[in-house]
Design goal:
Blueprint: E1 5-8, E2 15-16, H1 21-27, H2 32-53, H3 59-73, H4 80-88, E3 94-95, H5 99-105, E4 110-115, H6 119-129, E5 137-140, H7 151-161, E6 168-172, H8 175-184, E7 187-191, H9 196-205, H10 211-219, E8 231-233, H11 239-246
Parallel strand pairs: 1-4, 1-6, 4-5, 6-7, 7-8
Antiparallel strand pairs: 2-3
Length: about 250
């Protein structure tokens, strides 16, 4: 495999979306975890529904609408300040601990993000986390007005970076994104942070399935869509080693 670029999904891959839970719990004591999980599920559903209906609104609007839905169905009343405080966290999501080191180790490849995030959200998030110093491009699907996993969204990689699909390794922890990227023709690495064994154990050990466990069962395992990743790894830190094995001309940095 001769790669020219490594392109990352943002939310859930480089940035830990579960890091919003501290803010949701502070704003709505006792409801932090259930808010976090329902919010993310509805956020993804709204991207797919709007794409299918051809009624695009950017990810900022989708994120706000899905949070409003979540608070409403949980029967939670709130002041505007609490709502905005929770929304603001999406501009300050925590990086996964190995993200910066992994990106550093992947140079001299071109490095980019391809995300459903709107440009204003992504630009601030990338700058706040310091990844702007490592990335060659931050690509938003907003340019196509349709969300991943639509093929039009993945087309943006070649348009921005000047690469063919077989010259790109796309990295995502989201199974639906992995399937979409592989269907488009990209080389794909799946970050499998949750194993089926761990989920099964969590279900057995608890009489009631916790919201986080339910979320993991719905959103963290590879879907039955007929597409499998080329690489299956547990952490971002494994990526430089994979590329150096598959592309002998590249030596992985520590």
């Amino acid at each position: 495999m001769s790669l020219k670029a490594v392109v990352f999904d943002a939310y859930g891959t480089l940035y830990d979306i579960q890091s919003v839970a501290e803010i949701t719990e502070d704003a709505f004591p006792g409801y932090g975890e259930i808010i976090t999980q329902v919010w993310r599920i509805k956020q993804l559903e709204y991207t797919w529904l709007r794409s299918l209906m051809r009624r695009y609104q950017d990810f900022s609007a989708v994120t706000r609408d899905s949070l409003a839905y979540t608070l409403r169905i949980l029967g939670l009343t709130y002041e505007g300040d609490a709502f905005e405080r929770v929304i603001e966290k999406y501009l300050h999501l925590d990086l996964y601990p190995d993200a910066t080191g992994a990106l550093t180790g992947l140079k001299p490849h071109k490095l980019a993000i391809l995300s459903n995030g709107s440009p204003d959200m992504l630009d601030v998030l990338v700058r706040n986390s310091g990844l702007d110093r490592l990335l060659d491009a931050t690509i938003s699907v907003d340019a196509k007005k349709i969300f991943k996993p639509s093929p039009e969204a993945y087309e943006l990689i070649g348009e921005v970076l000047g690469t063919a699909p077989n010259e790109v390794l796309f990295v995502s922890s989201n199974p639906w994104d992995v399937a979409g990227a592989k269907s488009f023709g990209l080389n794909v690495a799946w970050i499998e942070r949750v194993t089926p064994e761990a989920m099964a154990l969590a279900c057995v050990e608890n009489e009631l399935v916790a919201p986080l466990t339910m979320f993991k069962a719905i959103r963290t395992q590879m879907d039955e869509l007929g597409f499998a990743p080329d690489h299956r790894v547990r952490a971002l830190s494994e990526l430089p080693g994979i590329i150096s094995r598959d592309d002998p001309g590249i030596v992985a940095r520590p």
